[in-house]
Amino acid sequence: MRLSLPLGLLCLSLIPLVPLSAEAQQGPGGPAPVTVMSAHAHDIVLTARLPGRIKASTEAEVRPQVSGILSERLFDEGADVAKDAPLYQIEDEPYRAAVAAARAAVAQAKANRDLAALEEKRAIELFGSNAGSAQNRDSAVATREAADAALQAAEAQLMSATIELDRTTIRAPIGGVIGLTQATTGALVAAQQTTALATIRVLDPIHVDVTQSATDMMHFTTTPEGRAMRATGEAHLVLADGSIFPHSGRLEAAEPRVEPTTGMVTLRMTFPNPDHVLLPGMYVEVDLPQAKAPGAFALPQNVVMRERNGDAYVWLVEEGKVAKRPIEIGRASGNDWIVTSGLNEGDQVITSGFQKTGPGAPVTVVPDTPAPAAGAAPQAEGQ
C-alpha cells in the first residue's frame, strides 16, 4: 500500500533562502553549498494509493431470444444506444405465419364457443319446460365450458406467437455504449446461445475495483473518524501514465469478505466519466483518504537517513552549520514520511548537498530550484 498527499495539502514548502556572497559559495575552502526546506506543520490528510481496474458500472450482453437468420444490423458499432433501441433484425416470415395461424385458431375457438353457448342456452330452456333431459343440459354446459377453455388456450398461443414475432427485432436491454458486433447479416443465431451478439456498457459513471490488505484497512476503520473519512472523502484517480484524472470519485462499497489466499479486500469506487476517457480493463491507481494527521510534518523520503539500528535522523542547518537531528517517523504518505517527533516549526532541513558535509561543518544555503513538472519522476510502485 502507498500513501500519498493531495497536491493542495503539501505539508512542507520549499523556501528559497538568500545565498551568501558569490565569493563565499565559490571561493576555495569556503563552506559547502546545501539546499534546504523549511519545516512547517499542517493538518495532513493521509491517503492510500491502491491499485485497481476499471469496470463498467452496468454491463449487459445482447443475445437472441428466438432462432433465425440475421437480416439486418441496426446500430453503429461503438455508438451510444438507448434502452429498447432496435439492434438486429431476424428474418420474421416464419413468425408472422405463426401469428396468422394463431389468430385463425382464436377465431375458430370463438366460433366454437359461441355455438356451444347457444346450445347450452337451448338445453337449459328445454329442461326448464320439461322438454329436455338433465343429461342433455349438463352435456351442453360441459361443452360450453370446454369451448371457453379452448378459446383461452388459442388466445394464449396467439400471445406467445406475437411475443416471438416481436423478439425477431433484437433490442438493447440497457442504454449505454455498444461494442463491436460478433455476428454478421446472414448468420444463423439461436435462442439462448452462449455467444453474445454484442455487449453494451454504461461508462458514465464508471466503477474502479481496487484492493487493499485487510491489515491496512483495519488501521483506518477502527475509529469513527477513519470510517467517516473513507465514506465522505474524495478519491482521486491516477492514470497509467501518471496523470491525474480531473474528476474526483467516492467509495461506493466494500466486499464483505477477505480473499483468503491474498488477505485482500476489494473496494469499489465510483467516478464520473462524461468524456468516456476511462474504459473497462484499464489499470489505474486510486488515492483514497484514510485518516487525518493534525499538526504534522512531512519530509521527502530521500532526506531521511537511517542509523545501522534503523533509527531515523535528518541533517539540519543550525546557525550556519550542519547538525544531526534524530526524528521519529510514522506512516509513509506517497514519497514522504510523516514525522511524529523531532522536528520543530521552521527547522531548516537539508535536502541536497549533505553528502559533502558532516556534523558541525559550516555550509552555505543556496536556493532550491524545483524540477519542471513534466520532468518529475513517477511515483514508484509498492511504496
TrEMBL record:
<feature type="signal peptide">
    <location>
        <begin position="1"/>
        <end position="24"/>
    </location>
</feature>
<keyword id="KW-0732">Signal</keyword>
<feature type="region of interest" description="Disordered">
    <location>
        <begin position="355"/>
        <end position="383"/>
    </location>
</feature>
<protein>
    <submittedName>
        <fullName>Membrane fusion protein (Multidrug efflux system)</fullName>
    </submittedName>
</protein>
<feature type="compositionally biased region" description="Low complexity">
    <location>
        <begin position="357"/>
        <end position="383"/>
    </location>
</feature>
<dbReference type="InterPro" id="IPR058625">
    <property type="entry name" value="MdtA-like_BSH"/>
</dbReference>
<comment type="similarity">
    <text>Belongs to the membrane fusion protein (MFP) (TC 8.A.1) family.</text>
</comment>
<dbReference type="GO" id="GO:0046677">
    <property type="term" value="P:response to antibiotic"/>
</dbReference>
<keyword id="KW-0175">Coiled coil</keyword>
<dbReference type="InterPro" id="IPR058626">
    <property type="entry name" value="MdtA-like_b-barrel"/>
</dbReference>
<dbReference type="Pfam" id="PF25944">
    <property type="entry name" value="Beta-barrel_RND"/>
</dbReference>
<dbReference type="Pfam" id="PF25967">
    <property type="entry name" value="RND-MFP_C"/>
</dbReference>
<dbReference type="InterPro" id="IPR006143">
    <property type="entry name" value="RND_pump_MFP"/>
</dbReference>
<dbReference type="GO" id="GO:0022857">
    <property type="term" value="F:transmembrane transporter activity"/>
</dbReference>
<feature type="domain" description="Multidrug resistance protein MdtA-like C-terminal permuted SH3">
    <location>
        <begin position="299"/>
        <end position="356"/>
    </location>
</feature>
<dbReference type="Pfam" id="PF25917">
    <property type="entry name" value="BSH_RND"/>
</dbReference>
<feature type="domain" description="Multidrug resistance protein MdtA-like beta-barrel">
    <location>
        <begin position="205"/>
        <end position="288"/>
    </location>
</feature>
<feature type="coiled-coil region">
    <location>
        <begin position="101"/>
        <end position="171"/>
    </location>
</feature>
<dbReference type="InterPro" id="IPR058627">
    <property type="entry name" value="MdtA-like_C"/>
</dbReference>
<feature type="domain" description="Multidrug resistance protein MdtA-like barrel-sandwich hybrid">
    <location>
        <begin position="59"/>
        <end position="200"/>
    </location>
</feature>
<dbReference type="GO" id="GO:0005886">
    <property type="term" value="C:plasma membrane"/>
</dbReference>
<dbReference type="GO" id="GO:0030313">
    <property type="term" value="C:cell envelope"/>
</dbReference>
